[in-house]
Every structure is written in C-alpha cells, then in structure tokens.
Amino acid sequence: MPAPSNAAGAAAPALFFDDIRCTFVSKDDRSQRYTAVADTRLAIAPGEFVSVVGPTGCGKSTLLNVAAGLLEPSSGKVTVFGEPLKGINRRAGYMFQAEALMPWRSALDNVVAGLQFRGMADGEARALGEEWLARVGLAGFGDRYPHQLSGGMRKRVALAQTLVLDPDIILMDEPFSALDIQTRQLMENEVLDLWSAKKKAVLFITHDLDEAIAMSDRVVVLSAGPGTHPIGEFTIDLPRPRDVAEIRSHPRFVELHAQIWGVLREEVLKGYQQQKKKV
Ligand SMILES: Nc1ncnc2c1ncn2[C@@H]1O[C@H](COP(=O)(O)OP(=O)(O)OP(=O)(O)O)[C@@H](O)[C@H]1O
Fold it and tell me: By its UniProt entry, which SMART domains does this protein fall under (predicted)?
C-alpha cells in the first residue's frame, strides 16, 4: 500500500506503519503462536506529536520496537520519510521506560556517547553535550555519575542523550512513568518546550490518557490483543503552548478525555480480563 500523501504532493510521513502484523511464539506454549499486532496502518507526519494509548500488554512496545527497527514485523512494512526501513532506524532516537544510562560514565559522557560513536571529534561532542545538559536544566552536573543524580535528573540526562543526536523522529515508551507526579509534569513540559522549538515527529507510548491528551496533536487508541490495531484516532485541538497540569482543566480537554475514554474503557477491561487469565 502506498504511504498516504495529499494531492499537493506533501512530504511523505516521517513514519508509516503499512499494514503491520507481529506474531510471536507463545511464551506459555512454544507450539503456539500469538499475534500481538495485526492490520496496523498508521502514519505520523513530520513534526507531529502522536500518542498511542491502549490496554496493558496490547502491543504498544511492540509497535515502538518495529518503528525503531529493533523488531522486524512478520508482515507489512515500515517506511521512514518514504523509504522502506531496513535494520535499525537511524533517523530515530529512543527513550524507554527503563534506565538507559551507563552507570560507569558521567552524565556528560553518557550524553556524548552517541556522538562519539558517530565519530564526532571529542571537543565538539563535549561542547554539544554541555549545551544539551544546560538545555535540560543540568548545567554544571556533567561530572556526576548516574547514581549521584535523582530519578528526574537521570531522565533529563537520558533526554539530552536522545536529543543531542538531533533525530528526525523521537520514539518514547512511557519515559516518565517511574517518576513522581510533580517531576513527571515538569519533564512533560520540558519535552513540549524542546519539541516546539524543533518540531520533530514524536511517537509517544503511554498508559496515561491524561498525559497523551496534554502532550499530543493526535491520540491513537489501540484495541486489546490479540491482533491489536488502531480503533480510534482523535485530533487534539487544544491550544499550544500548553502547560500539562493547567490544560487538564480546559473544557475541551475534559470533552476529549470523555470521548477517548469512551473508546478506550472497553479495551482496558478486555485487556484486564486477559491479564487475569494469564496469572
Ligand atoms: N518477544 C516476544 N515473544 C513472545 N511474546 C511477546 C514478545 N514481545 C511481546 N510479546 C507479547 O505481545 C503482547 C504485546 O506486548 P507489548 O510489550 O508490546 O505490550 P504493551 O502494550 O507495550 O504492554 P504494557 O502496556 O504492559 O507495557 C504481549 O502479550 C506480550 O506478551
């Protein structure tokens, strides 16, 4: 299937899931196969912030791994700015739920690792790394090791580590779920500030519908598995710039929340029943 574009020949999507299916060997019974994701067609425009919400275990991380090029779909394909994705997605930066910092490297050395890997001269990489540490509010913390930083600070380092590479696509898998609510909202606002300055395509995976609405241009709802696929798409026509805490009391936010929850609720209940069966 061709990637969607408009009649004026607008730019190809930054990321396009073209009829993706992902089937795994079942964890419970090796003779069985489990289709986590099926019939998934989703395009993310350059500069667009899209959140994907869905019940637990439905296949959100699977889709993100496919976009990152870490997992090859069983069928269908991914295109990146119109080019079929082969292997690792070099135009994407990732930020996952788990801590990704190298504990033996200082904050600055963590931020510059990717630049060094790409062959950038040390002085240049360190200058850029310092610049990004300052941008995420950690000027002067470059010599600290991860264990000397709070959870929120470590997330900021991880954010700098991702953004310093200037990716055209940012893939985020519940990056702030381990943080307390205040730190989380600060980080969400920081991400929105950084995003609005550079306008990269973002695919943001979250369990949290409030977070999805507060941050995004569009929220996509996934069905419960097996064969997870998008079952609803909502344009978030809330004004920007947004403060993620304040926007929650906006009447349109409340309206959108009710609409999306109307679709998501049933899938969450189905997902919950399935999880219970697995236990
Ligand atoms: N490598 C794998 N082998 C077998 N099954 C897998 C594999 N990866 C994922 N699955 C299964 O595919 C389904 C989707 O998993 P995935 O981690 O993508 O869900 P998720 O929506 O991100 O979950 P959560 O909301 O709990 O983070 C799950 O049932 C999971 O057990």
Answer: AAA
